[in-house]
Every structure is written in C-alpha cells, then in structure tokens.
C-alpha cells in the first residue's frame, strides 16, 4: 500500500479535531523516516534499515527555527494563528540530538507570536528516560504518548521496536509523567508472517487498562487505522468495537475520545 512522508520541516497548518489548527514541526529527514519503532500501521511506511536512531538528514535546528518564526509571523499577519505547534512528522521527534534546544526556542517563539497556542509532542515514549528529552517534554504543554499494547507479545508484533526498547521500559517511561500525559492507542487486528495480531481481544484490553490505571493519563485517545499501512492484511476496527473499548476506559475513570 502507498504510504507518505512529509517533505517539509515546518508543515501545515493541518486542521484536526484533536488539536485544532496545528502547525507541524518535522525534525526528521524530509525524504526518509527515522524512528525507534517500526509500527505495522505507520503511515510513513516501514522504518528503513539503519534508521532506528538519529543519523544524516535531520532538520538543521537554526534553519528549522527561522522557518517556524517566519510561518508564525505570516499566520499572525493573516489572523490565523495555530491552536497547537505540534512535533510530529517522519518518525520519532525526540530522536533529534538537539531536541531540548529546539524545544526551548519553540516555546520562546510560541510565547512571542502565538501565546495561546499549545506546544504538543507526539512520541512513542522510547526516549523519555533520557534526561535531556524529559526536560524538553516537560516544557511542552501536551505530551501525547503511544501505548498500543497490553502485553509484551503484542507490543513486539505491532510496534516492532529497535531491540534496546523493551516493553517494560516504555511503561516505566510513561509513569515518569505522573499522569500529565495523553495516551494514544491504535486498535487493529490482522496477520503478519502468519501470526495473528489483535490488541482488541479481552485479554489485551484488560492488560492495557491495567497499565492505564498505573499511568493515570488525563486523556486516552483511541483510533482505528485511517490511512494506508505498510503491512497488508490489517483490519480496520469497527466503531462499535471502539465504543465498547471506550466504555471500559470510561468505567475505569478516564477521559476517553474515539478519533
Ligand atoms: S512510532 Fe509513529 S512514526 Fe514511529 S513507526 Fe510508529 S507510527 Fe510510525
């Protein structure tokens, strides 16, 4: 199936139900995905060999921030300032080695040109235990962290993390926020290499809810597959099933939204 890459460092604005008018920052290369995960549903396609960590072609921090400033000035002149300045793009933004410096500058630009905008980071939580990354994340207003599985087996099947990122590390990283985070979870069923993959089973959902009870997120966002995926044979979960899962999340005392 066809997947896509963002071909700009500053992209959008995208208008979304989640974040409103969202101006995106892609710190990853514009021609290649770089991510510590290799999710079977990733809209950017498979993570190429050797692209699980920082490497060539990452955004130049100075250029990126000049571009962000000029877009914010333009949007201010057009009276169309963003609701969110969102780190996302072609992979995992926190892998950029200058993420902390970039975050500090982004917050300063937000304060100067778009003080009502929230700074949002979409992350897979693999690097949260790095002190510089955690410091940067705490400067953001919205920490949107991925948790797609209840068990290690399903985590490995869906997220296919680089070997150093075990499931327990991800869970411990999510606890570091003391509840000041949003969890986002994509639900799917399917097959890969003849193995059944299903994070919607009762066992998986129960285990996942158990983790939520520890993590205590302020919001849980759940999704079906909405775009082309690199793996074929994946099933789009019905709205009824997502409603059933959302009910369980709400009964456990969490705010939950289906997207
Ligand atoms: S964490 Fe995000 S960017 Fe990385 S592989 Fe998964 S969906 Fe793609």
Properties at a glance:
11 strands, 21% strand, alpha/beta, TIM Barrel, binds iron/sulfur cluster, 259 residues, 8-stranded mixed β-sheet, 3-stranded antiparallel β-sheet, 7 helices
Topology:
Blueprint: E1 10-16, E2 20-26, H1 61-77, E3 84-88, H2 99-113, E4 118-123, H3 131-139, E5 142-146, H4 152-159, H5 167-175, E6 182-186, E7 188-192, E8 195-198, H6 202-215, E9 219-223, E10 234-236, H7 239-251, E11 256-258
Parallel strand pairs: 2-3, 3-4, 4-5, 5-6, 6-9, 9-11
Antiparallel strand pairs: 1-2, 7-8, 7-10
Helix pairs in contact: 1-2, 2-3
This protein binds iron/sulfur cluster.
If you had to describe this structure to a student in words, what would you say it looks like?
This protein has 259 residues and is α/β, with parallel strands linked by helices. The protein has helices at residues 61-77, 99-113, 131-139, 152-159, 167-175, 202-215, 239-251; strands at residues 10-16, 20-26, 84-88, 118-123, 142-146, 182-186, 188-192, 195-198, 219-223, 234-236, 256-258. The strands form two sheets. Strands 1-2-3-4-5-6-9-11 form an eight-stranded mixed sheet. It has a three-stranded antiparallel sheet with strand order 8-7-10, with helices on one face. It is globular. The site of iron/sulfur cluster has 11 residues, from loops.
